[in-house]
Structure formats: structure tokens, C-alpha cells
Amino acid sequence: VTAYKDNFNYPDRQKFADRCGLPRNQVRAEMSPPPQAIAAAAKDIGADLVVIARVGKPETKHAVGHTAEKIIDTLDADLLVLPMTAPV
Predict the structure, then answer these.
(1) Is 38 left (phi over 0), alpha (psi -120 to 50) or beta?
(2) Which residues are 49's β-sheet partners?
(3) CA distances (Å), 53 to each of 2, 25, 83, in order?
(4) What global pTM score does this model have?
(5) Where do the domains of the chain lie?
(6) Alpha-carbon distance 17 to 68, whole Å?
(7) Residue 40 and residue 3: Cα distance in Å, rounded?
């Protein structure tokens, strides 16, 4: 799911999807707030695991990230939060 502001300015996300071997018909873009878009997409495809990047600084009040906090209770899947700087 491409659910972040200015996603077209970050082609590395598409490169990541390509390296993961995702067929183009399994990549989608949503024009809604990320928490809602991610939760809806996970439900639509019956995801067992949702992986998202945490872009905030570790010392912020959102220990796992704002988006993760917003969707963690609405997912029927496990959630893995990685720091944005994690190697892919």
C-alpha cells in the first residue's frame, strides 16, 4: 500500500516492492490517511502480517510510531514496525 504524503517523491518505496517480487497488480495506492488505508488494505487481502516503517525520532511520545498506534487495535494481523533507517 502506498499511503503516505508525496509518495511519488520517494521512488525507493517502489524499488523495495520490486525487490520483494511483488507483482504490479498487488501494489495499490490509496488517497486516505495512512492508518485507515493500511488497515483497510490488510483486511481486503487477508494479511497475516503488516510491516510499516517508523519515521519519527525514538525519543518522541509515540514509542512505536503514530501510525502504528492508530492501527494496532484495528488490525486482524500481526504488526511489525521497523525504523525508517533499517536496511532493506
Answers:
(1) alpha
(2) 78
(3) 12, 22, 5
(4) 0.63
(5) 7-83
(6) 20
(7) 11
Quick one: cell of 82? Answer: 521497523
Kind and range of the H or E run holding 16: helix 12-19
Name the nearest CA neighbour of 70 among 25, 30, 39, 27: 39
User: Containing H/E element for 82?
Assistant: strand 78-83
Q: Which helix (H) or strand (E) holds 49?
A: strand 49-54
Segment 26-81, tens digit of pLDDT: 777 777 888 888 999 999 989 999 998 887 666 666 567 788 888 888 898 999 98
Length of the chain: 88
Q: What grid cell was written down for 31?
A: 488517497
